[in-house]
Amino acid sequence: MKPRLFCPGPTPVPSEALAASMETAVYHRTGAFYKDLLQCREMLGKLFNSPNLPLILTSSGTGALEAAMSNLTSPDDEAVVLVGGKFGQRWAELAKAFQLKSHVIEIPWGETVTDEVLENLKTTLEENPRVKAVFFHANETSTGVHYPVEKISATIKNHSQALSIVDAVSSVGAHPMEMKKWDIDCVVSGAQKGFGVPPGLSFIALSDKAWSSLSGRSRYYFDLQKERMSQETGATAWTPATTLVAALKQTLLKIDELGGPAAFTEHHALAASAVRKAALAVNLSLFPEADFSNAVTAMKVPEGLDGKKLVAILREKYHAIFAGGQAHLTGKIIRFGHLGFFDALDIIGGMGALELALKEMGHSFELGAGVATVVNEYGRSWSAS
Ligand SMILES: *Cc1c(COP(=O)(O)O)cnc(C)c1O
């Protein structure tokens, strides 16, 4: 039995990356390490399309979210937070922990940022000209929705002076990120999502405007100015997770080898489209109605079936690790992650396991229809290219 990850992070680690991370006799205050760190920053910059090179932090994704909060806001600053799922709530909780005055714009879970929400954002910004920052998401991983980042950023820029701060933890790699073109001030991501690295590194990129808006709030570990001064030469403020940086270098090189960021995004789009069609072929309905994420597909668990049991059967019997729903969606949805370094055979296998588990639970559909759909989708795409 071979355990396989089908959750939206952590994601599978390519063998080259794993091998590289096993070299532990690495001292981080050496020219060789500085060179690797700088090379990683350069390659990350291509995935972010950032005006300044991203910084590499040793923390999970939430650490970089916290860094954005603590470095770009002061207590009592006003902020707008878009909340449409578990991760939107995390921005709201961070804003509260950092004593911001938040205007929360609620988006029903599973829905996208519609024109109506954009209108609401515009009004909120116009009525509150002191808003310092708007916090939102690229992928809301808990619901499988990919928000229209470019439109949200344009609304912020056209109607305020606020910084636009995006949690793109599960999005970079799976979707285009045009930080410079879309005029975004801060983008955060994490190694264990689209980057195929074990958990423990996060990334944060700032625009010139963000760098010149650093707050006077006191902070220590996540001091981005200090980190920036160090990372200009490839050093880090603190001891970095050297083994993970070694893994990251390998996976970033692999993205280049696969054709670069655009090809990598395409690989995600194809898998996501195949999984959505396969879900419909086995009589499942999708949780979002529009703006589906390339990183994760959220499907409704059929009425009368226990979603937690479905995830447990997949894990225990097939060693296929899917994610269930969070908060009020617990037991109600199942999430099929296709993020980072998976391939067509993984998607075929994951769909097969899902079908077998659904059959065992008594769901009615034609066994094999989902796998056939995935195979046909890949076949069609490959014969066309
Ligand atoms: C995974 C994820 C995070 C980060 O979570 P950590 O557990 O701290 O790495 C943040 N935001 C989104 C949208 C995510 O998918």
Structure description:
With 385 residues, this protein is of the alpha/beta class. 43% of the residues lie in helices and 16% in strands. The chain has a 7-stranded mixed sheet with strand order 2-10-9-8-5-3-4, with helices on both faces. It has a 4-stranded mixed sheet with strand order 1-12-13-11. Helix 4 (86-97) links the parallel strand 3 (78-83) and strand 4. The two termini are 34 Å apart. The model has no long low-confidence stretch (mean pLDDT 97). The protein binds pyridoxal-5'-phosphate.
Write the topology of this structure.
Blueprint: E1 4-6, H1 15-20, H2 31-48, E2 55-58, H3 61-72, E3 78-83, H4 86-97, E4 101-106, H5 115-127, E5 131-137, E6 139-140, E7 145-146, H6 149-159, E8 163-167, E9 186-190, E10 201-206, H7 208-211, H8 224-231, H9 242-257, H10 261-281, E11 296-300, H11 307-318, E12 320-324, E13 333-337, H12 344-360, H13 369-384
Parallel strand pairs: 1-12, 3-4, 3-5, 5-8, 8-9
Antiparallel strand pairs: 2-10, 6-7, 9-10, 11-13, 12-13
Helix pairs in contact: 2-9, 5-6, 10-13, 11-12, 12-13
The structure holds pyridoxal-5'-phosphate (PLP).
The site of pyridoxal-5'-phosphate (PLP) has 13 residues, from helix 3.
Output the keywords.
13 helices, single chain, 385 residues, 13 strands, 4-stranded mixed beta sheet, 7-stranded mixed beta sheet, binds pyridoxal-5'-phosphate, 43% helix, alpha/beta
Which percent range describes the beta-strand content? Answer: 15-25%
Major sheet: order of its strands?
A: 2-10-9-8-5-3-4
- Approximately how much helix is present in the residues? 40-55%
> In terms of per-residue confidence, which ranges show pLDDT below 50 for 5 or more consecutive residues?
none
What general outline do the C-alpha atoms trace? Answer: globular
Count of individual helical segments: 13
Bound molecule types: pyridoxal-5'-phosphate
Q: How many strands, which pairing sense, and closed or not: the largest β-sheet?
A: 7 strands, mixed
Count the E strands: 13
Radius of gyration: 21 Å
Write down the secondary-structure element order.
EHHEHEHEHEEEHEEEHHHHEHEEHH
* Overall pLDDT metric: 97
Structural class computed from helices and strand pairing: alpha/beta
Our measurement of the CA-to-CA distance between the termini, rounded to an integer number of angstroms, reads: 34 Å
